[in-house]
Specification:
By secondary structure, this protein is an all-beta fold. The chain is built from no helices and 5 strands. Strand 3 and strand 4 form a beta hairpin. The mean pLDDT is about 90.
Length: about 80
């Protein structure tokens, strides 16, 4: 697995709302600091339609892509 470097674009999976009004969605995110190569936890700047969101120690989840995690964009050679 390729460890993303600062400035790379990844996808952050939003949580959605508890009542289901909004489904979890992929959002563009920028890697903001060095990634731990063992845990693959990253500090991200997530780009939302209403503004930026900062997420520290965001876990990598390439398979289930559950809310609150990051993964490589689909179709990238790094996935």
């Amino acid at each position: 697995m390729t460890v993303p470097t600062v400035g790379r674009i990844v996808h952050y999976k939003s949580y959605g709302t508890p009542g289901g009004e909004f489904e979890p969605e992929c959002r563009a995110a920028i890697v903001a600091s060095d990634v731990d190569p063992l845990s693959m936890e990253a500090t991200l700047v997530v780009v939302n339609p209403t503004g930026l969101f900062f997420n520290q120690q965001c876990k990598h989840d390439p398979h289930t892509k559950k809310g609150g995690t990051w993964h490589w964009p689909e179709g990238t050679p790094n996935a």
